[in-house]
Structures are given as structure tokens and as C-alpha cells.
Amino acid sequence: MKRDSALVAYSSSDESETERVIRPAKKRKLPVLSSTLVGPAHVDDPSLHQGRIRTIPHVDGQYATHIYASVTLERGSPLFKLLCQIVASAKSMAPTLHDFWSSPKDTPQPELHISLSRPIYLRSHQREDMKRAVKRLAEKTSPFTASFAQISELVNEERTRVFLALEIGAGHHELTTLTNILSPALRAIRQQEYYAAPRFHASIAWALLSGRAPIEQGSDNTTPEPQAPISSGSISSDSRNSSVPLVPEFATITEFPPALLPALNEQYGPSMTVTAKSFDIGEISIKIGKEVSRWRLNGT
């Protein structure tokens, strides 16, 4: 029997599929935050800080930090009286100097700060780790006696201020040991260690600067030579030739008068090294933002 071959017809897929139109999803608008939830933008006003200028812009969640040995001064002590005499003599030759404790109302208990770190900047999650590192350092360090050796001029790395400083003589070795112990903790958070050849000091007065030569990388805050001859100790409020922004109403100087340091060291140098003017270092402090934490030296 002869079979008929049957042909089966299949419909085209184009005919069987229905056309789909994909429309983009509607974006939802986020609600507008209330003005009470948005903090005001941070604005630096040098006029509120004697003309001092923030050299590192403010960043939310980043905290300026300073580690130092703190020395409390009694206003009636021989050392405090000596420091006041030095500052008064310096102001007679450099009138734009500002001291740190002239007003008992603002600083009822004056202190000397001997830096153990450069200015560093911590993120929020790093603060407690650094405080623990400083606390451990205090627990393993014994108190020691220090004294000053000479009066010096030091300039900050940004060249915005010049400081009248007293450099450490006795106690330099112990302070070097402290900075060496701190170095691993600073390296762990990618911060610069203290200077390789440190000049430990306590600043007792400062002035705003203009027209200074750049400081070389790796400097230990020593005073650089001026780029060009300038009038020594001249006061200027003209910011046109300055490498940093200045506040016109605050006077600046280009440098201390050349005769200032020799005169101060000749008059007060012998007095700084006598036993009555020595002092004990028995406390380490760390300032993170506006918060200050202190620990007594308790090592044996």
C-alpha cells in the first residue's frame, strides 16, 4: 500500500511570539533632608585666632593630633618667672610676639609642651589605637629631670609662624627614647615619625610670618635662610609678596631681629641651666581634635 507523505507545517516563531515593550522603571525621588539634619559648612576665621591660618583644610572625620610631654608651671616658681622675663625682653625687640600664658584668666595653669610627634591626622577609627599606644608608653617609662640649654628660633613647616623656643639640654636622651618607642605605632597608620635629628624644645612665644624661604623636605623645623635680603625684624601687613595667605589686620614679620637671640642667650642662658630652673617630666599627653588625654609616667 502506498502511503502518502504528510507535510507538517510549523508556524513561524515570529508569528507566535508577541511583541514585548519594556519600559524603564520609574525612579523614586529621595526625600529632601530637613535643614536641621544638615550641619553648617566649616569656615575658618583667622580673625578669631590672632591671625593664625589653618594649613590643612578641615575634613570631617579627620582629627589633628599632637603627642607631647607636658610640664605644668606654677606661676610663682623660679622657672615661670624666668620664662616671663625672657618673653618680656624678646617683646621689647620684636613687639609682634604673642606668648602662651599672659592672661591668667585664659590659662590659669600654664604648661610647657615638648613635642614627641609631628602634627599628625587620625581617622575616627584610629583614635583609640593611638591613645592605647601612648598609654603603654607612659606605663613603661619612668619620670626624669630635664632642663633647657639655649633659646632658639624655629619655624613651622608651612612657614606661617616663627617661634621663640627653649631647646632641651638635660633630658634629651630620654625624650629620644620616647619618640623611638612611638615610631612603630605611627608607621602602622602611615604617619611620619618624629625627626631623625630631633631638637626637643618648648615654645614660649610666636609671631606671624611672611616672606620666608621654603623649608627643605625632611627639615627638623630649623629656621631657613631668607631667599633675598630683607629688612631684619621689619613688620609688614602687605600680603602681596607672601607665599601664604595673610590676614591684613594682623602684623607679620619676615624674621626675628638678628640681635634678638644672641642678646637673650647672653642675658638668660646661664640662668636656664641652674638646678633651680630644672623641671621634672612625669606626664605624656595626646591631643586629638579638642580632646586631651594624659597619663603619668609609671615605669620603674
UniProtKB/TrEMBL annotation:
- The UniProt annotation puts the region (Disordered) at 216-243
The regions listed as transmembrane in this protein's record are: none
Alphabetical list of InterPro entries matching this protein: Usb1 (IPR027521)
Where are the compositionally biased (Low complexity) regions?
A: 231-243
Instruction: Enumerate the active-site residues.
Output: 113, 201
Question: What highest taxon heads this organism's lineage?
Answer: Eukaryota
**One of the GO BP terms on file:** U6 snRNA 3'-end processing
UniProt-annotated location(s)? Nucleus
Q: Does the keyword Protein biosynthesis apply?
A: no
Coiled-coil ranges per UniProt: none
Q: Name one GO molecular function term.
A: lyase activity
- What are its E.C. numbers? 3.1.4.-
- Alphabetical keyword list: Hydrolase, Lyase, Nuclease, Nucleus
Main subcellular location: nucleus
What does the entry list under GO cellular component? nucleus
Q: What does this protein do?
A: Phosphodiesterase responsible for the U6 snRNA 3' end processing. Acts as an exoribonuclease (RNase) responsible for trimming the poly(U) tract of the last nucleotides in the pre-U6 snRNA molecule, leading to the formation of mature U6 snRNA.
Q: Which family does it belong to?
A: Belongs to the 2H phosphoesterase superfamily. USB1 family.
Name of the molecule in the record: U6 snRNA phosphodiesterase
> What organism, scientifically named, is this protein from?
Mycena maculata
